[in-house]
Amino acid sequence: MLIGITGKPSTGKSTFFKAATLAEVEIANYPFTTIKPNHAVGYVKVACMDKEFGVQCNPRFGYCLQHKRFIPVDLLDVAGLIPGAHAGAGLGSEFLDDLNQANALIHVIDISGSTNEKGEAVDPGSYDPANDILFLEEELDQWYLRILNKGWEKFARQVRQENANVARALAKQLSGLRVTEDIAKEVLREEALNEDILSWDANALKHLASAMRKKTKPMVIAANKIDVSTGKENYLRLVKMFPKYTIVPCSAESEVALREAARKELIQYIPGEKNFTVAGKLNEKQEKALQFIQKNVLDAYGSTGVQLVLDTIVFDVLKMVAIFPGGVNKLEDKDGNVLPDCFLLQHGATALDFAYHLHTDIGEGFIRAIDVKTKRAVGKEYVLKHRDVIEIVTRK
């Protein structure tokens, strides 16, 4: 799974990326600080099952803090986009193509309105961040349309001549954008497009491109810089303006500060929580900064928003479920690690899907699964639930 982080320059994209990963990325308040895409690992958070079993887990991947399990996901931070990106402005077409394989997008906007359309600093509140949501929609739609239009007439004639299945042909043509046959069928039905592909005009193709983009690149908006004075008013207004989007109030800078302080053992902090505990000696500057974050971010919004954005896009938008491998009589692996793994699977995945996810041999040797929490045997068609602990019984 790959989550792309996008938006115009200087909105705090790289700060958000660092907050989510603590990767060493260049951060500056000028356009195109990021040129090459940054790739690193972020984490989504679930309540760990170790507490319910009265044990302490030992993750092989990710980590666990006070029974909160952090599961790794791949994040990609691409350079900032400006109007005309789909046509190459600011190397935009190259940056958009970096997002080809992304399952979903996080759009980081400057909710305080202190960054104009070119990514230049302006007075807070002097720029309307609603423009950024509309701008990115248009750029992404035009990007999809550019790819769709490439060789369209030849493609359409071939589909008609071969009397090919239109949905299947579209899925093959747009496979690089993660368009599947099921998605193509759904879009064709929703857009009420007829089977005569050569009759589709430019307007039909634009609607098709937009619909494909919404299906294959679902998005959560990180309303960054919420701690700036103009942020809250803009946030409340945009939530009403764009009811179909999930917009999360966010302060990436605050999250970086909290994680860095926790790494230096000055505070105890669990990402996504609304409080922290002072654990070391703070100087006056550090104390004031942390007090500001507590009052203006954590108390006001319940968290810095960074962890919430990641959790929302993985669990609510992409509808993944977290599954722990385990045994009824033994939660440890051969090295003695307790509940060492936790995997993300698509909602609707079955016990057999999970077996194959673990290893092809396990899937092929599947006999039954056991719900470790209830100790009940289940069959291969059992649909996994979020935070299930599953034992797979195989042929020896």
- Proportion of residues in extended strands: 15-25%
CATH architect. name of the largest domain: 3-Layer(aba) Sandwich
Chain oligomer state: single chain
Number of strands: 14
Instruction: Kindly report how far apart the N and C termini lie.
Output: 32 Å
Would you give an account of this structure?
With 396 residues, this protein is of the alpha/beta class. It folds into three domains: 174 residues, Rossmann fold; 69 residues, Helicase, Ruva Protein, domain 3, CATH 1.10.8; 74 residues, Ubiquitin-like (UB roll) (Roll). Helix content is 37%, strand content 19%. The protein has 14 helices and 14 strands. Strands 1, 2, 3, 4, 5, 6 and 7 form a seven-stranded mixed β-sheet that branches. Strands 11-10-14-12-13 form a five-stranded mixed β-sheet. A two-stranded antiparallel sheet has the order 8-9. The longest helix has 20 residues. The two termini are 32 Å apart.
